[in-house]
């Protein structure tokens, strides 16, 4: 008896295909401005792939569903387009990549972001995520620990809100377009990433009745902690710090 192999459907792959022309045009225009070569993660049916290919720069496309990979290959998008089946959580953008574009499956947004931030071969990343995730990663209304840990090397910005009706199937929440930019001049050297990441983790997990007390508990000198806290609004918490303040706090640790 032959065994039928189950092929995951769009819902199982977490795919919500982008169908709104204005949104597609806006994403591709920003990608063109950032420049190629390009990598596209989670290409789906190719709503972004086709206009990205028309820019003419090298484009490396990664899609998990082999049926969609085959459909994109049949589209014959040009010799400058490389299409492959793969898991974005394991894919490493090739050296020379300038801009990565992704309509991220909502259920893998955070692990995909963590994976992307650990990769070094990209300068810009244009990511479609859930709206609340996009706001948090851009530091709107307060930064997350993940954002703060990478701020010295990667700046984040919220480009626009994308209504749920821009996708098929229609998700239960709106999405947002997030722009990550690798800083041409990092605020800290790469050799200090491990120590800085641990410092941010300690601050976010620290206890205290106010910001200065939390910073002091994480190793910041009392004088520096009081000075930095005085620059923020009363009642401020670690999530309210900006990139420059995080770096200043890290550099003010007691030795």
UniProtKB/TrEMBL annotation:
Pfam family, one: RrnaAD
Entry superkingdom: Bacteria
Keywords from the named record: Methyltransferase, RNA-binding, S-adenosyl-L-methionine, Transferase
GO cellular component: cytosol
InterPro entries named among the record's database cross-references: KsgA/Erm (IPR001737), rRNA_Ade_methylase_Trfase_N (IPR020598), SAM-dependent_MTases_sf (IPR029063)
S-adenosyl-L-methionine in keyword set: yes
A GO MF label: rRNA (adenine-N6,N6-)-dimethyltransferase activity
All residue ranges annotated as the Ribosomal RNA adenine methylase transferase N-terminal domain in the record: 23-184
PANTHER family: DIMETHYLADENOSINE TRANSFERASE, DIMETHYLADENOSINE TRANSFERASE-RELATED
Name of the protein described by the UniProt record: 23S rRNA (Adenine-N6)-dimethyltransferase
Species: Barrientosiimonas humi
